[in-house]
Amino acid sequence: MEFKRVSVIGLGYIGLPTAAVIASRGIEVVGVEINQKAVDTINRGDIHIVEPDLDIVVQSVVATGKLKATLEVEPAEAFMIAVPTPFKKGNADQNSPDLSYIESAAKAIAPVLEKGNLVILESTSPVGATEKLAQWLKEERPDLSFPQDVGSQADINIAHCPERVLPGYVLQELVSNDRVIGGISSACSEKAKALYSTFVRGECIITNARTAEMAKLTENSFRDVNIAFANELSVICDKLQINVWELIKLANRHPRVNILTPGPGVGGHCIAVDPWFIVDSCPEEAKIIKQARLVNDAKPHYVVDQVLSAADEFKKPVIACLGLAFKADIDDLRESPALQIVETLCTNSEASLLAVEPNIHELPSSLAEKGVELVSFSQAIERANVIVVLVDHKEFRAADKTTLARKVVIDTRGIM
């Protein structure tokens, strides 16, 4: 099966790299984005997110005419939906998944669908979301047949293929990682596999849509449980006056033990979110998964208590928070425990707050409006008496640690 034109709906941290990689294979790609500024930026050959080497690829495929960004959906042979799946706001259950972005994407592409088209849901979704996508498309286009109705003979092919990449290594892992592809029918799976085979060197493994959805949720829930164990250990070790970093290093010398690294919490739009989708689907059964989420969600509050206790030792405390992103060397603040910690300190402390985040140019409004200053690393070290390491950015790892000798340091990442 040959694909000459592909549409990617959503040009964020997953959609834009995916669009750029496909375009680099000589396939025409139309990227659809609701943000006019992002559209203009991409069409200039620039990028609006931080991801190593992405700027080079985007510049190349835009220059050759293989990638363009637009506000409006255009006809294509395949549509890849890469929009957010956050929690519902104002809902009684704060951790219930919000599929409104996927529904909006379905309604946007429905008018231009043609017989033989492929629609792939890449957004990480609760089990059953791909079937809901098919239903939304069917409601908009009753003139077309869908795989839930007629199986392999449907006019439109629908599948789920969740992204499984690590921020900072997205371009590499989009190509090298195995992909789990779940079609609503076997014909849908085969057509989706044909598309991914144009740029994926890893194995494309076929299953059904529900299993593919659950596979991504399972991967991130497994990591969340492991991190919760490490975070709980870190709290226990604080109480028992044990160096948790040394302890984990020693325990991991066992050939069958691999404890992950503790931190100030868990962030990003994957590990901090996906386990709740399983809990929402089966609240009575997902006991360990839910408890791991509660442990990791509690860790930022524990860090805040440590910082407040340290600040109380000074008449005029100045707290410097190193890092706001949810992981090292990126600009992504989504579900970031570091950001949550600084926001909480704004509310609960009279101290002057400084933030050091080398990957952004301005603070989010939640901090800027409360008087937090965005400063350089050297300015923070000069002015602060309490240093809080929240993210292990390369700039912090490479810093001269002797400059911190006379500071109170709370290191949640174990780099000092």
From TrEMBL:
Span of domain UDP-glucose/GDP-mannose dehydrogenase C-terminal: 320-415
Record bears the keyword NAD: yes
InterPro entries: 6-PGluconate_DH-like_C_sf (IPR008927), NAD(P)-bd_dom_sf (IPR036291), UDP-Glc/GDP-Man (IPR017476), UDP-Glc/GDP-Man_DH_C (IPR014027), UDP-Glc/GDP-Man_DH_C_sf (IPR036220), UDP-Glc/GDP-Man_DH_dimer (IPR014026), UDP-Glc/GDP-Man_DH_N (IPR001732), UDP_ManNAc/GlcNAc_DH (IPR028359)
Gene Ontology MF: a single term: oxidoreductase activity, acting on the CH-CH group of donors, NAD or NADP as acceptor
Pfam family, one: UDPG_MGDP_dh_C
GO biological process entries: polysaccharide biosynthetic process
Keywords: NAD, Oxidoreductase
Recorded family membership: Belongs to the UDP-glucose/GDP-mannose dehydrogenase family.
Listed NCBIfam families: NDP-sugDHase (TIGR03026), PRK11064.1 (NF008286)
Protein name per the record: UDP-N-acetyl-D-mannosaminuronic acid dehydrogenase
Organism of this sequence: Alteromonas mediterranea
